[in-house]
Structure formats: structure tokens, C-alpha cells
Amino acid sequence: MSWIKELKANFLLRVVSANSLVIAIRLTITLAIQRILAKSLEEYGIAKIGDVRNILAMLTSFTSMGIFNGMVKFVSENEKEPSRLKKLLSTSFLFALCGSLVSSLVLVAFAETFSIRFFDGPQFAEVFYILAIVAPAIGLQRIFNAVVHGLSRVRKYAIIELVAYIISAILTLVGLYFNHLKGVLIAISIGPVIQLLTLVFIFGKTLKPLISSIRPKWDDHYGKALLAFTLMSFVSNILLNSVEIYLREMLEKSLDIKEAGYWTAITNISKNYMVFSTALFSLYVIPKFAKITTGFSFKKEVIHIYKTLLPLFGLGMLVIFVFRDYVVQLIYPNFEGMEPLFKWQLLGDFVRLAAVVVAHQFLAKKMIRSFIASEVVSMILFFGLSLLLIPLFGTEGVVMAHFFRYIIYFGFVAFLIKRHFSRINALAKS
């Protein structure tokens, strides 16, 4: 039948289906892990885990110098050009080498300072020393992962994600059993090493001919092009994680550590289902947008993505909202204070998904100014609205700010994209 053939030919649906099983298994594991952590570490532990995850996210960007999306774009465009791929990878390794070295030195020099800053004492300095040791592995993992995404190896990526996540989950439980909160943080810190080893084991045969003769070396063309993505990644990544850390501290100081734990818990749930869309962006959206040259084709592709993606996400979010009481009791027992947060978080995530799909045109076409402008506007809105709404609505004010900022962000991104294609049309006519 024709509709069956159409489904089989829909690459986006293949990406969705390939990741569906992985996400389902991952969510199941996450439910169990988060429940155990919530019962063992309570709100304080969940909040501090949130801080370390924010730090790890920033470190992930620093160690690879933020070139992940640029590599996905250029690998996708030059898949059949070995000489160009070699220059790209040589330059990418140089970026990772520099980023990893600087990150390691900073972490070693300020390990105790960071421990005092985030944990009110030097007792967690060990976590930052471990991060310093694994920093090179984080950089390499991002480089290799970008190659997998750029080549759109959907099934292998799904397997890599699943195996690495299962091993990391086991290590988290082992860390909790032997060393309570510190053990969990150490397990989280070495997670990227597990991801790197899993990636090399599963994808090694494809990677080997690409990287066997490559050494860190600067190529002027790709170097300058990747620097643009470095700037975009740093603006986005550092702003987002810094704002999240600050707001978590604000909730802790102005309200209570429990409130910081509730917000961290709801963002954990959000990040676990939004990770599904993250894979789609790098495996499908960026490579697809990179090849689109007209406004009509872009609009057609966006509509195609929306028709495929938004109903699935909308249905899933509706189910989560209807059964939110059960979700809380299942994942975060005794975290009843987070139940009012679901409505605004889910609404914000739905609008966010629709907006971020369109915004990936900035990455695909290296629209640096538009990307930075949209990210700065988004973070200012989130930060400003949170400061305004927290005194009025408590922790619920943060998730309200999350929703309102993405409505405005969506409109701003749409305006920038429309202006971009209007300029292209004007140039074509002239």
C-alpha cells in the first residue's frame, strides 16, 4: 500500500523508530535510578547532582571547543570526500587537544575552590580532580560522536547510547552503595569515558580508516569555519548552565533546598524525554537543513518535521501530565512539591521543541549573529522572568518563566528566519 511505502521512505520516521526503543529502555532505567537516588539522597542530593550535571555540560562544550554541531554539518556535507574529511578531522583533533588541556588545568587548579563553591566545603574536590583526568576523553568522545551523527548512522548511534547508558547507570548504583553522594558524582564524572569506550568498540571499524593516519593539524578553511561554531556553542552552553546553577542557588537561598530539589527533579524528567529530540536534531535536522537553499524547501521540511514529531511529543506530554501524580510517586517519592510544576514545564517544552527545530537553521547555515542573538534573548528572558516570578509564585515561577520565554523566543526565531530568506530572495532577483 502507498502509505506503507511512504512510511518506509520517511527517513525522519526511521530515526524516530530507531531511537524509540533506546529512549523507552533509557526512561525505564532512569525511572528506577532516579527513584533510588531520590529516596537515598533526598532533595539536597538531587539538587547537587543537578549542579554537577550543569558543570559536566559546560565541560563537554569546553573540551571539544564547542565544534560538535559544526562537525556534524561538515561531515554530512563531505561524507564522500576523504581528503576534506581528513583535513576536518585533523583540525577537530587540534581543537579537542587545546580544549581538553585548558579544561584539565583549570579543574586541577581550582578543584578545592569549586568544591567549596558548590558543596560548602573541600570534601568534594576529588570529583573535580577526576573530571580533570577524564577531560581528554570527553573531547574525543564529542569528536567521534559528531562523526557518527554526520554520517547519520542511526542504528549504531542508538546502540551506542543504550549500552553506554546502561553501564553508566550500573556505575551510579555502585557509587551510591559504596560512597553515597560522592560516589554518585564520581560515577557521573566518568560517564563520558564509558561513552567513548562504547563508541570506539561499536563504531571502531568505521572510525579506524578515517582517523588512523590523522594527527592534530590546523587547516585554515575548516579552522575558521569551526571557530564560528565554537562561539555559538560557548554562548549557548555557558549561558544556559550558568543561569540554571544561579537559579538553583536562588531557590535554595530564598526558599529552601527542597524547592531547588523539586525544580531539578522536574528538569531531569524534561531532559530525559527531550534527549529524544536532541538525537533527531543532530542525526536528521542539521544534515537536512544544511542542504536546503530556498525558503520554500525550508518551509516544506519544517512542516514535514512538525507533522511527524509534534503529535508524538504532544501525546507523550499529555500522558505525563494526566498521570503526573503517579509519575512523582514512581520516580521521586515524597517530592509532592513538584506536582504543580508539570503544567508549565510541559507546555514550555512543547513550544521549545517547535522553536528549536526552526532555530537549527542557524547552526546548519552557520548564521552566527542570528544564533547568538536568539540565545542571548532566550537566556535574558528566562533569567529576567524567573527573577520577576519567583517572589510571586515560588518555584512555580521558574517553570512559568520557562514557558513564557519560549513563546517569545519562537516568535523571534521565526522573524530572523523569515528575514534571512527574504534577503536571499532579494539577492536572487537582483
Strand tally: 0
Total DSSP helices: 15
List SSEs in N-to-C order.
HHHHHHHHHHHHHHH
How many structural domains does the protein architecture include?
Answer: 1
Largest sheet: none
Mean pLDDT metric: 82
Q: What proportion strand?
A: under 5%
Q: Indicate the overall shape.
A: globular
How does this model look, in words?
This protein has 430 residues and is mostly helical. It has one domain (2-429). Helices cover 88% and strands 0% of the residues. It is globular, with a radius of gyration of 21 Å. Residues 1-9 have low confidence and may be disordered.
In short:
By secondary structure, this protein is an all-alpha fold. 88% of the residues lie in helices and 0% in strands.
Features:
single chain; 430 residues; 88% helix
Topology readout:
Elements: H1 2-9, H2 11-63, H3 68-77, H4 82-109, H5 111-119, H6 125-150, H7 154-189, H8 191-211, H9 220-254, H10 257-290, H11 295-322, H12 324-331, H13 342-364, H14 368-393, H15 396-429
Helix pairs in contact: 2-6, 2-7, 2-9, 2-10, 3-6, 3-9, 3-10, 4-6, 5-6, 6-7, 6-8, 6-10, 7-8, 9-10, 9-14, 10-13, 11-13, 13-15, 14-15
